[in-house]
Amino acid sequence: MGKNHKKLSNNLEERRKSIGLTQQELSVKAEVSRKSINAIENGVYVPSTVLALKISKTLSCKVEDLFQLPE
Amino acid sequence: MNKKERKKHLIHLAFWTWSWVLTLAIATFGPEFFWEEKSALTIVAIVVNLAIGILMVLANRKLFNHYDELERKIHLESMGLTLGLAVIIGLTYSLLDQKNLIHSDAEIGFLVGFISITYMISLMVNRKRYS
Fold first, then answer.
1. What tens digit of pLDDT does each residue of B15-47 get?
2. What is the secondary structure of chain B as a DSSP string?
3. Which residues of B touch A47 (CB under 8 A)?
């Protein structure tokens, strides 16, 4: 698990690295700024539903595989 | 994120901002240095300045809509903070003037300067927060 926001856990960084993408490459594919990807991975920003869906589609996985409510 | 499109929006905003500043200067100093105070030219200069100001705001909105959601959030938080502080500080400043507790008259320029500085500082702080 990466660094998590208090309202949302994420493993975006692990998933991104596992398929060999840089933050820059993911940001281009998901049509969002690299800073947004970095902020989500660092748990300082909770993405909107649309952005979460875009990222999960780019990484070919389900949204729940990337983001979970903290236990 | 389309960098070319962003650059285009930035150039438009810069163009309208500088045009607004220029027409504001003309409307302010024109009656003093170039034509009579109560001339129709003064009204024309003020109306042109107002129209260009509206175009500047529209250019700013276009750029804002081009931002991604994190950037929008950063700008919105900064605007919210700036608006709140501007109202509070503006009214306090006005009250101080009304009660003759400050030596000079309250000037709108002070508030504009305050808004600019507050917005820039809150943008820097929020960018740092979300990095």
1. 999 999 999 999 999 888 888 777 889 999 999
2. --HHHHHHHHHHHHHHHHHHHHHHHHHHHHHHHTS-TT-HHHHHHHHHHHHHHHHHHHHHHHHHHHS-HHHHHHHHHHHHHHHHHHHHHHHHHHHHHHTT-SSSPP-HHHHHHHHHHHHHHHHHHHHHHT-
3. 69
